[in-house]
Design brief:
- The protein is an alpha+beta fold.
- About 25% of the residues lie in helices and about 35% in strands.
- It has helices at about 20, 35-45, 100-115, 135-140; strands at about 10, 50-60, 65-75, 85-95, 120-125, 145-150, 150-159.
- Strands 1-2-3-4-5-7-6 form a 7-stranded mixed β-sheet, with helices on both faces.
- Helix 3 links the parallel strand 4 and strand 5 (about 120-125).
C-alpha cells in the first residue's frame, strides 16, 4: 500500500518566508499575464485590512515554496458601495512547478476560504490571448461573464 502524497498547503507570508515568496517567477513569456509577487504584496499592504489575502503555496512533501496566490475578500467591485465580490486576484506558479496541480490546489483553497466566510461565488480576471490562463480557468469550471475589469475578461465559479 502506498502512502498518499502530502497535499500542498498555504502559509501566510511572513518575515520568515517573504524572500521565498519574492523568488517565485512564472515562465518566460508569462510575465505579462500576472504581476510579480512584490507588486502583489505592495497592493495587499495598501488595501484595508482583510481585503487582500496573500499566501505562499508550499509543496506538502518537500516543504518548499512552489507558488503564490492572493485572493480578494469582499472587495468593493465598483468602488461605489453597490457590489462586493471575493475571488482570486493573483496566481503565480513558479516556472518549474507548473503543470503539477498547484494552480488547481490554489483555486480550490481560495474557494474553500470564500465558502468558509459565507461566499457563494469566486471571481477571477485574466489577460486574454493565446498564452493567457483562460483555458486553465474554464477547465476548472469558471464561466465567462459579459464583464471586463479594465481590459480583462471576468470569470465566475459558483460555489
Amino acid at each position: 500500500m502506498t502512502t498518499p502524497r502530502p497535499r500542498p498547503r498555504l502559509e501566510e507570508v511572513t518575515t520568515g518566508n517573504v524572500e521565498a515568496a519574492l523568488a517565485i517567477r512564472v515562465r518566460p513569456g508569462q510575465e505579462h499575464n500576472v504581476e510579480p509577487v512584490a507588486h502583489s504584496l505592495a497592493e495587499a499592504y495598501v488595501h484595508p485590512p482583510g481585503v487582500a489575502w496573500p499566501r505562499l503555496i508550499v509543496d506538502g512533501e518537500e516543504n518548499r515554496p512552489v507558488g503564490f496566490l492572493m485572493a480578494f475578500l469582499d472587495i468593493d467591485w465598483r468602488a461605489d458601495g453597490t457590489l462586493f465580490r471575493s475571488g482570486l486576484w493573483r496566481l503565480n506558479i513558479d516556472a518549474g512547478e507548473q503543470g503539477k496541480g498547484y494552480g488547481r490546489f490554489a483555486v480550490e483553497a481560495v474557494a474553500e476560504e470564500i465558502r468558509r466566510r459565507g461566499g457563494k461565488q469566486l471571481y477571477v480576471t485574466w489577460h486574454a490571448g493565446p498564452d493567457g490562463p483562460e483555458e486553465f480557468y474554464l477547465r476548472l469550471g469558471f464561466r465567462k461573464t459579459d464583464e471586463l475589469s479594465g481590459d480583462q475578461p471576468v470569470g465566475v465559479l459558483d460555489l
